[in-house]
Structures are given as structure tokens and as C-alpha cells.
């Protein structure tokens, strides 16, 4: 009997090395929030590698109320450079998803530049880490406002265009925390649980207009969001990696590359998924099928 062996994936594994349809999104334009780094950057690069032009959005100093992010320009410029290196156009726009005006402007600029927006990926998110009784009011508000309100505003900004065209796909990055809980992540978990309800509602209301709405639930992804906490780097032999290994069916793939999430989004946005809406796709190395996320 032929024995399949599971490939051990290193920190720098990129699912795009596995081969991809490079014309899947040819001629399309995609807007991505949280595009300066992590999953958002991988989404921008994946869609560009598959033919799409990109509106790359991330929080920037010009937006009132936004946190000062001195590294932002470089990061968003890095995304734009990657997209352009792949032969696609990229518009880098400062957007704070807490502001409807900045999202409306990003959509308007994207339409002006590319004439269309086929796919919108509402990905921007922040995480808090504290016991629920220690979460400050402003932290609670910020997490809900970015992770849940931000997706609502992003969809709201693009919906009129997609309804008019009777075409389009809206995707959001939720999390396995949308279906489970972990100590110290109350606000984040509440925001992601709420996001599933929001996305179901959008799928229902936009279905009449042939606009599809789907959600991806990543497990532990190798990005700055979870790479910098006190339990050490994700990857290699760190305690963090051991922790996530225990919680995944695919133990050798428990720390996902951002490109794994982007690949799922690319499929959900493609014509191959033309009958898929209201879906919640786990990209989590099988962590949700195991008990024990309540650590
Ligand atoms: P990240 O911190 O590396 O990147 C998030 C990006 O969002 C940053 O560039 C940040 O500047 C941007 N952002 C934050 N607040 C914003 C705002 N108000 N307006 C616009 N942009 C803003 O994180 P990541 O891991 O790439 O996370 C992306 C998404 O994936 C988030 O929604 C996160 O909750 C989700 N997610 C991440 C993981 C993981 O393990 N990394 C797992 C599940 C879900």
C-alpha cells in the first residue's frame, strides 16, 4: 500500500510555491484592508500574482483618531512594491476602518483608478490580551470597532458599486476564535463571533444582487499579530509552536503561512466558487475539530 507522508512545513513555507492558476483574477481589481503586513499583504500579493490590480489600505497618520504608525508608510509601500514587482498596479491608500469617510474615499479612489472593484477583503484587525475584567473600556471599544465595525463599514462602502454591477465578492478574515474561546481574549473573541453574524446578514441581503459574501477562519498564522507576545516567536522550536502543535490535527502545519489564508480567499473570490456564499471556511490545520482551545 502506498504510504503518503506529510511534508514538514518550515517557517518560510509559502503555499504559492505549490503552484497556482496565474490568470484566475486577471483583469479584476481587489481592495484589501490591513494590507501593510501579515495576512493582508499576502492577500494583496496572491491576488496580484493571479492577475488582479490592488487597492492596498492600512491605517495611516492622516486619519483623525488613528494611532500613530510611523512604520506604516514603509510597510504599505512594501506591499505596493511587491504587487508592482508582480506586474500589477497598486494604489496604496491610508485607511482607518474606524472611519466610514476614509473607506468611502478608498473605494472612490479605487474606482477612479481601476474602474471597478471585483473583490473586497475586509481583513484589518487588532487583538487584545487581558482577562476580561482588566480590559479597559477604550480597548474594548477599539477591538469591536476595528474587527466588527470595520468590516461592516468596508462592506457598506463597496456595496452600492457591487449592487449596481450585480457582481462582486466580499470576504472577511474572522478567526477560529469566532467559534471557540481562549482565556485572555474576550474582546477579540466577542468581535469575531459577532463577525460571523454580520457576514451571514450581508450574504442574505446581497444575495438578491448576485454579490457573494464569505468568511475565512484562520488558525494560528505566522504574522506580527501573534508573533510578538511573551510566549515567544511562532515557528521553530519555540514554546509557542509547541502550544499550537498540541491544538492542531495537522501538527506539522499548525503555524500557517499567511499565504495559506490568502489562497483560500483567492478561491472563494474566484468563479470556481460562484455558488458559494455565506460560507465560513476554516483554514486552521484542523484546530477547531479538537477539544482544548480553552487554554
Ligand atoms: P497584523 O497585525 O500582522 O496585520 C494587521 C494589519 O491591520 C496591520 O497592518 C494593521 O496596521 C492593520 N490595521 C489595524 N487596525 C487598523 C485600522 N483601524 N484600519 C486599517 N488597518 C488597520 O495581523 P494579521 O495576523 O495579518 O491579521 C489580519 C487579520 O487576520 C485580522 O483580522 C486578525 O484578527 C485575523 N487573524 C489573524 C490570525 C493570526 O494568527 N495571525 C489568526 C486568525 C485571524
TrEMBL record:
Keyword GTP-binding listed: no
Pfam families tied to this protein: adh_short_C2 (PF13561)
CDD domains in alphabetical order: SDR_c (cd05233)
GO molecular function: oxidoreductase activity
InterPro entries: NAD(P)-bd_dom_sf, Sc_DH/Rdtase_CS, SDR_fam, SDR_subfam_1
Keywords noted in UniProt: NAD, Oxidoreductase
Family: Belongs to the short-chain dehydrogenases/reductases (SDR) family.
Protein name per the record: Putative short chain dehydrogenase/reductase
